[in-house]
Amino acid sequence: MAFRTALTIRFGDIDLAGIVYYPRYLHFCHVAMEEFFREAVGLDYPRLLGEHRLGFPTVHIDVSYHQPLRYGDQAEIEARIERLGSSSLVWEYTIYRQGEAHAVFRARLVTVAVDMQSFEKRPIPPWLRDRFVTRGLVAAEGGSGPPAAAAPQGHSTAGIS
């Protein structure tokens, strides 16, 4: 199931050319992920980090820019979990200008479940997997996604699945 949330392009999002500065799109993806957890999963992301000591840092990114967004544009971000692995999530994000059917941006990100104290990879807990599955938030379980990129300095994502 795809989840959508609204976004207004702010002055701080644009560059001198008057369009959204390209790394801001990745920030928009993270905002959509936090909203996904809050609205679709029923758990605020800060609570997941603080109380459950579980985070999902991004380890691989593949993006395509199709059209620019400008200051004041109203947009919608669609987020969905393409694949649920044992410790990873493959996310698909699509950004649309509000009221239009064609995408202005697409991204595929891989995030890995980590313990927030040790920053070591860990399995996605059964209670969270159950929420993803029972709420219809996952397109597929298992399978293989893109290879993970390097983890943050000093940490390993070897064996991500």
Shape: globular
Unreliable stretches: 143-161
Alpha-beta content class? alpha+beta
Total of DSSP H or I helical runs spanning 4+ residues: 3
- In N-to-C order, the SSE pattern is EHHEEEEEEH
* Strand arrangement, major sheet: 1-4-5-6-3
Our estimate of the beta-strand percent is: 25-35%
Oligomer: single chain
The top level CATH class name = Alpha Beta
Rg to the nearest angstrom? Answer: 16 Å
CATH topology: Thiol Ester Dehydrase, Chain A
Distance between the termini: 21 Å
Integer tally of domains? 1
- Would you identify the CATH H-level superfamily? Hotdog Thioesterase
Total DSSP E strands? 7
Helix content: 10-25%
At CATH level 2, the architecture is Roll
Global mean pLDDT = 90
Task: State the major sheet.
Answer: 5 strands, antiparallel
Describe it:
- The chain is 20% helix and 30% strand.
- It has 161 residues and is an alpha+beta fold.
- The chain has one domain (3-134): Thiol Ester Dehydrase, Chain A, CATH 3.10.129.10.
- It has a five-stranded antiparallel β-sheet with strand order 1-4-5-6-3, covered by helices on one side.
- A hairpin with a 3-residue loop joins β4 and β5 (88-97).
What is the fold's blueprint, element by element?
Blueprint: E1 3-8, H1 24-41, H2 45-50, E2 54-55, E3 58-65, E4 74-84, E5 88-97, E6 103-112, E7 114-115, H3 126-134
Antiparallel strand pairs: 1-4, 2-7, 3-6, 4-5, 5-6
Brief summary:
By secondary structure, the protein is of the alpha+beta class.
